[in-house]
Write a structure and sequence with these properties.
Rossmann fold; two-stranded antiparallel sheet; 9 helices; 6 strands; globular
Length: 227
């Protein structure tokens, strides 16, 4: 059962500690490139991404207190956090390439088993919040097969294998995807493996482009670098 709490769920000091990725950033995936590095179309982190995933943006670096927000939304039933997190995504994690054109917001699906255990799909709550801020349609275009374990703790190659062929497009969404630009919404970006697998059937169903927007991204050595 999802829990709802009145009032502010996140105090002002914690809000101010949420850190956006520093500049310069990769133009495709938003990864910080380091001081003085030229911003290119892709970087080492996204150079191996499949072409189906055009670009990715994220609002904050996955370090405290962002880690607590992600965990609270995903595992502790704090569904009310999605409003704050989605608002932050709408302000800072919408790819510039989309411009002012219309696009379809698609939440990253979860399995029915996980949805029952959590009481909701956290990515859909974030997508609802983003859609409410940018006034664009939300479509549950994807389904996730009942297979694969959690991605937590897996190496990149294991992540790719774990989500291979994990997603399909719903039959009633195919007509709406034809020629559309899709904003795929999830909570965390790690290696991009899940997003690439989700983007592939969307493109095959007729979508023109797929962009990924997440609340947070895991960066190596984030705490040591002071992000």
């Amino acid at each position: 059962m999802a829990l709802e709490y009145p009032g502010e769920l996140v105090c002002s000091p914690c809000r101010t500690r949420l850190r956006a990725p520093p500049w310069p950033r990769c133009l495709r995936c938003g990864f910080p490139l380091g001081s003085g590095a030229p911003a290119g179309q892709s970087c080492y982190e996204c150079g191996g991404w499949s072409p189906e995933l055009s670009a990715a943006c994220f609002a904050v670096v996955l370090r405290p207190p962002a880690t607590a927000l992600v965990h609270g939304l995903k595992y502790d039933g704090w569904s009310g956090l999605a409003s704050l997190m989605g608002e932050r995504m709408a302000r800072s994690a919408i790819p510039r390439e989309l411009g002012s054109g219309a696009y379809i917001i698609v939440p990253m699906p979860t399995t029915r088993r996980r949805a029952r255990a959590r009481g909701y799909n956290q990515a859909r709550l974030l997508a609802e919040a983003v859609a409410g801020c940018v006034h664009m349609p939300l479509i549950d275009a994807l389904e996730r097969r009942q297979r694969g374990s959690t991605q937590v703790g897996l190496h990149p190659a294991e992540r790719r294998a774990n989500v291979k062929h994990a997603f399909t497009v719903r039959a009633d969404a195919r007509a709406k995807l034809t020629g559309a630009r899709v904003l795929l919404v999830d909570d965390v970006l790690t290696t991009g493996s899940t997003a690439m697998e989700a983007a592939r059937p969307l493109i095959q169903a007729g979508a023109k482009q797929v962009f990924l927007s997440t609340f947070a991204r895991a960066l190596p050595y984030a705490d040591q670098e002071g992000y």
